[in-house]
Every structure is written in structure tokens, then in C-alpha cells.
Amino acid sequence: METAIQAEVTCSEEPAILEEIQVEELAIDGICGVY
Predict the structure, then answer these.
(1) Distance from C-alpha of 31 to C-alpha of 4, rounded to nearest angstrom
(2) CB atoms near residue 7 (< 10 Å)
(3) Half-sphere exposure for 6 (CA within 13 Å, toward CB)
(4) Model confidence over 1-34: pLDDT tens digits?
(5) pLDDT band at 35 (very low <50, low <70, confident <90, very high)
(6) How far apart are the first and last CA of the chain?
(7) How far is CA 12 from CA 25, 29, 30, 34, in A?
């Protein structure tokens, strides 16, 4: 059960982590006017 819970947590957190990485990349690459 513990491993299943951990797997669910990581699966639910991965999209947020990927979004944060994409936002950081956009912040670095898209200083030209995205923000």
C-alpha cells in the first residue's frame, strides 16, 4: 500500500514539476515579452 500511495503522489506531482520547469524555461527564454 505504501508504494502505491507513493506512486500516486509522484504521478500527481510530476505534472506540477514539469510545469515549473517549463515556466522557468519560458522565464529564461521568453524575457522578450512573455512576461
Answers:
(1) 40
(2) 10
(3) 3
(4) 566 555 555 555 666 666 777 777 766 666 655 5
(5) very low
(6) 43
(7) 21, 27, 27, 27
Judging by beta carbons within 10 Å of its beta carbon (0-12, 13-18, 19+), is residue 16 exposed, middle or buried? Answer: exposed
Q: How far apart are CA 35 and CA 19, in angstroms?
A: 16
pTM of the model: 0.30
- Dig out the grid coordinates for 7 from the structure: 506512486
Record the cell numbers describing residue 21, joined without a space: 520547469
